[in-house]
Amino acid sequence: MTRPISDLHVAVLMGGLSSERAVSLSSGKQCADALEGQVARVTRVDAGRDLAQVLAALKPDVVFNALHGDWGEDGCVQGILETLQIPYTHSGLLASAITMDKDKSKAVLRAAGINVPGGGLFDRHAVARGHVIAPPYIVKPNAEGSSVGVYRVLEGEVPVAAVGADDWAYGEQVMVEPFIPGKELAVTVIGEATGPRALTVTDITPVKGFYDYEAKYAAGGSIHKLPAELPPAVFETALRQSELAHTALGCRGISRSDFRYDDVKDDLVLLEVNTQPGMTPTSLAPEQAAFVGMDYKALVRWIVEDASCPR
């Protein structure tokens, strides 16, 4: 942005239509609160199907996109904002669309030389009937985040019947990947003018089970260790691979890469990249920013100042 941030009217999009609505409402509230007093005006928008009309009437200078999940994170809202020619935060249309699709983003990451999981897309009914790959494995929607609809199947367990149920709402194909034992890691990347900069590596330990929705967002659901205690070469590889993933997928602004590290086999695997990391009280990105000296208000301010819109 070329104008001083103190002169801006910022519309914060939150809520939305996806299964991650509750997380988005929390992220959006935190971001809007942080912007109060830093910008001329903050308007909180619960983004519905009438978003184009709402924004056309509001005429904000910048849109802070705090939506998570489909529609808000997959290129659809980005297309609306580009049509209206309103500068907006986070990644653009193409990067958002590719990154939200786990299968397509894995293809891009693999082509860039990044180690990603095996497995692939399978018909959900076939997955419900039998093991399409040998256990242990992970079953998850191809285009959801926040660990919504994710299941872990261990050796000796039966297939996931839920993915074949009539009320399954996450598409006819699901991603099935080998389960990678070891550490759950995350790296936040900030896309600076000189290139993407990885902040640090967090080691995440769920209090119980595995790193599912509750572990991510419930208070006390997981323990975050930063910087992660890793062999120096692994730590450095996680940073560099996160920056490479940010660039390969065409991300802008802030992103977060999620890894598993098998410390027995010394195998670091990038699971996926999130173009709109959570900004809730338990979220990893603001925690990592604080670790390197950027508090929550400063992070939100930087995200707004980084907003842009293709012409």
From TrEMBL:
Keywords: ATP-binding, Cell shape, Cell wall biogenesis/degradation, Cytoplasm, Ligase, Magnesium, Manganese, Metal-binding, Nucleotide-binding, Peptidoglycan synthesis. This is D-alanine--D-alanine ligase. Its main location: cytoplasm. PANTHER family: D-ALANINE--D-ALANINE LIGASE, D-ALANINE--D-ALANINE LIGASE B. GO terms for biological process: cell wall organization; peptidoglycan biosynthetic process; regulation of cell shape. It comes from Brevundimonas variabilis. Its EC number is 6.3.2.4. NCBIfam families: D_ala_D_alaTIGR, PRK01372.1. The active site is at E20, S146, S283. It is found in: Cytoplasm. Mg(2+) 1 binds at D258, E272. Its cofactor is Mg(2+); Mn(2+). The keyword Nucleus does not apply.
